[in-house]
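Page 37, continued from 36.
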C-alpha cells in the first residue's frame, strides 16, 4: 500500500496516463522523424538518378509521390504536436488525441516509406541502401506502444464516453 501509485482500482489509468500516453508521444514523433528521413533520401536519390536521359525528379509520377509524402508528413506532425500540447496542458482528451496521433503517424510512415522505397526502385532493397534500413525500422513502429487496432479501441472508447456525457464532438 505504501508504494502504490494512485488510488485502488486506478492501476490502468496510472499506467496509461503516466507511461503509455507520453510514450506514444515519443513513438509518434519517431514516426515523423523516420518519415522525414525517408523523404530526404528519396528526394536526394530522385535528384541524382537519371533514367532514359531524365532525372527521376523530373518525372511527374515521382513528383506526385514526393508531394503526397510532404503533405502526409506535415499533417501527422501537426496532429502529434497538437496531442503533445493537450498532454502538457493536462487536457482530458489527451489520451484519445495521442492514440489518434500514434495511429495516424504510423499509417503515414507506412505510406511515406513505401513511396520513398518505390522511388529507389530495386536498389532500395539492398542492405547497402540507407532507405532499406529506414523502411525496416518503419515497420517496427507499428508494434510500439500498441498496434493501430489498440489505438482505435482507445479512440472509440473515448468517443462512447463523450456521447454518454452528451458532449460528442
Amino acid at each position: 500500500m505504501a508504494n502504490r501509485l494512485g488510488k485502488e482500482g486506478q492501476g490502468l489509468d496510472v499506467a496509461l496516463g503516466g507511461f503509455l500516453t507520453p510514450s506514444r508521444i515519443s513513438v509518434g514523433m519517431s514516426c515523423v522523424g523516420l518519415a522525414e528521413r525517408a523523404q530526404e533520401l528519396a528526394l536526394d536519390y530522385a535528384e541524382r538518378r537519371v533514367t532514359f536521359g531524365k532525372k527521376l525528379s523530373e518525372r511527374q509520377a515521382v513528383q506526385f509521390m514526393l508531394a503526397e509524402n510532404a503533405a502526409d508528413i506535415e499533417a501527422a506532425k501537426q496532429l502529434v504536436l497538437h496531442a503533445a500540447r493537450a498532454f502538457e496542458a493536462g487536457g482530458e482528451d489527451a489520451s484519445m488525441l495521442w492514440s489518434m496521433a500514434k495511429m495516424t503517424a504510423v499509417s503515414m510512415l507506412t505510406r511515406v516509406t513505401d513511396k520513398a522505397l518505390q522511388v529507389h526502385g530495386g536498389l532500395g532493397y539492398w542492405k547497402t541502401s540507407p532507405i532499406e534500413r529506414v523502411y525496416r525500422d518503419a515497420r517496427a513502429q507499428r508494434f510500439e506502444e500498441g498496434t493501430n487496432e489498440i489505438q482505435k479501441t482507445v479512440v472509440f472508447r473515448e468517443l462512447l464516453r463523450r456521447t454518454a456525457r452528451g458532449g460528442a464532438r
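The chain has a mean pLDDT of 87. Flag for discussion at group meeting. Residues 11-48 form the longest helix (38 residues).
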